[in-house]
Amino acid sequence: MTILMQQSRSFWCRMAKQSAPRRLAAIMSADVVGYSRLMGLDEVGTLKALKQRRSEVLAPLIAKYHGRLVKVMGDGVLVEFASAVNAAQCALDLQHETAKANGPLPEPKRITLRIGVNLGDVIVEGSDIYGDGVNVAVRLETVAEPGEVCISASVFDQVKRKLDATFDDLGEQALKNIAEPVRVYRLRPPPGGHIESVIEPTPPRLPAKPSLAVLPFTNMSGDREQDVFADGLTEDLITDLSRNEGLFVIARHSTFAYKAKAIDVRQIARELGVVMCWKAVRAASTDAFGLTSSLSTRPAAITSGLSGSTAASKTYSRCRTR
């Protein structure tokens, strides 16, 4: 019986490996240098600063370079791109903007990043990705010095003629738990300043399942306290929808980059790579709770962005109890 169970388990493991969807992706892995030290100095201040950097620096860059935030891991983040050029450019810009944000801060409180970028095959499971393509990016991050970006040879081959940057060949490196040595390059801005942005016009790859972005709800009441309520409502909706395995829901960090910005919903859809955008407006009335919600959609085959049509719209209203 034990042998039979082992054989059965082996069979299903092989089947799972064969059926798991895969794709080629550029992966950016970043973490904070000396995170434990920063937390030891000021836990509340460090967490607040990290959240601020993610919303004000990281999220806009991910959107600009058509990336997707896969997950946040304590002090680290994992981001997926359809283009190696966009991934490398985003990494350079992230280091540049992080250094600018550190300017007015005292040395002990500065948030410094190490970043690794790899191009490789990944296994897709829901909104998460796995495999050597991811593992190499994470290990490259450990090779990078504070404030630096390290890329693999697979990334270098794609970006060497497309980025006006400096590449330092660090040779083959034995990375932890990676079977074969990986050739590593240090990526730096050109002498004399920051690299000019180069964006490849390749929107994120649409997932097979229906994709949805819940945009930050707009508060029209004039009461600033209601901003917290509107944000909480948006976050709760994202969380609840994410539990539906039949939907691919964009993470909060990516959609909140568009808060209080007058951007065409079609542009947002293109940048986030989704089929549907959900937005809502909190009514201006002080005597009643009102919410107008609309869902815009487009055929999945169209990759140029939303058509601007509204698939569903509904207004909810409830008087306040006194």
Describe this structure in words.
This protein is an alpha/beta fold. Helix content is about 35%, strand content about 30%. The chain contains 9 helices and 14 strands. The strands form 2 sheets. Strands 1, 2, 3, 4, 5, 6, 7 and 8 form an 8-stranded mixed beta sheet that branches. β4 and β5 (about 130) form a beta hairpin. α2 (about 35-40) packs across α3 (about 45-65) and α3 (about 45-65) runs antiparallel to α4 (about 85-100). The longest helix has 22 residues, at about 45-65. Mean pLDDT is about 80; it is low at about 1-5 and about 300-310.
Secondary-structure topology with pairs:
Layout: H1 2-19, E1 22-32, H2 35-41, H3 43-64, E2 68-73, E3 76-81, H4 84-102, E4 113-125, E5 128-130, H5 132-143, E6 149-152, H6 153-159, E7 166-173, E8 182-188, E9 211-214, E10 218-219, H7 225-242, E11 248-249, H8 252-255, H9 265-272, E12 276-282, E13 288-297, E14 310-319
Parallel strand pairs: 4-6, 9-11, 9-12, 10-12
Antiparallel strand pairs: 1-3, 1-4, 2-3, 4-5, 6-8, 7-8, 12-13, 13-14
Helix pairs in contact: 2-3, 3-4
